[in-house]
Amino acid sequence: MKSLGILSAGLVFAAALGTVASGDDHVDPAVMKAVKARQAQMQLYAFNLGQLGAMAKGEVDYDAGAASAAAGNLAKLTSLNGRAVWLPGSDDATLGEDVTAALPAIWEEGSEIGDKAKALSMAAAEMESAAGDGLDALRGAIGDVGKSCGGCHEDYRRSDD
């Protein structure tokens, strides 16, 4: 459970984590609030990355100001201390698949979640530096962010497949 302080960054850009069921009487309300908060953070990751990805793919015109703003948001989001929203027992096996896609492996001994979170935070900081410097710079930086997201999702997020 090392590096839980930046754990939230390791579970990046997962807008599809699921919606927390309201009124779930068997779950501690504090745990449900934590899950809702981390899902909201993931939606913000996805929103900002979506703007950057659309520019990188040519789906929308590149805008240096908008790219810088989205990359700055993402860098800030990945640097938040996530300890309060990544509570042990807030996984899909405990709360149910309709509540979260977070796997219990996040909290297991030997988890590399902290390292993955650091990699995402570093990639987001690199993208923040590059995003306003032109479309090629954005395209060059966005790949590492995507790899960081995918690396975490592969190990720590239940697949929808």
Characterize this entry briefly.
Helix content is 57%, strand content 0%. The protein has 161 residues and is mostly helical.
Helix-residue proportion: 55-70%
SS elements, strand count: 0
| Broad structural category | mainly alpha
Number of helices: 6
The description of the largest β-sheet is:
none
The pLDDT mean sits at 86
- Poorly predicted tracts of residues: 1-24
Here the CATH topology equals Four Helix Bundle (Hemerythrin (Met), subunit A)
Question: Which series of helices and strands comes N to C?
Answer: HHHHHH
Give the radius of gyration: 16 Å
Second rung of CATH, namely the architecture: Up-down Bundle
Query: Structurally, how many domains make up the residues?
Result: 1
* Spatial separation of the terminal alpha carbons: 28 Å
CATH class placement:
Mainly Alpha
Principal-axes shape call: elongated
What is the percentage of strand-forming residues?
A: under 5%
What is the CATH superfamily?
Cytochrome c/b562
What is this structure's SSE topology?
Blueprint: H1 7-10, H2 29-57, H3 64-78, H4 92-95, H5 113-130, H6 135-156
Protein traits:
161 residues; Four Helix Bundle (Hemerythrin (Met), subunit A); mainly alpha; disordered N terminus; 57% helix; 6 helices
Q: Care to describe what's here?
A:
The structure is a single chain. This protein has 161 residues and is an all-alpha fold. The protein has a single domain, classed as Cytochrome c/b562 (Four Helix Bundle (Hemerythrin (Met), subunit A)), CATH 1.20.120.10. It contains six helices and no strands. Helix 2 packs antiparallel against helix 3 (64-78) and helix 2 packs antiparallel against helix 6.
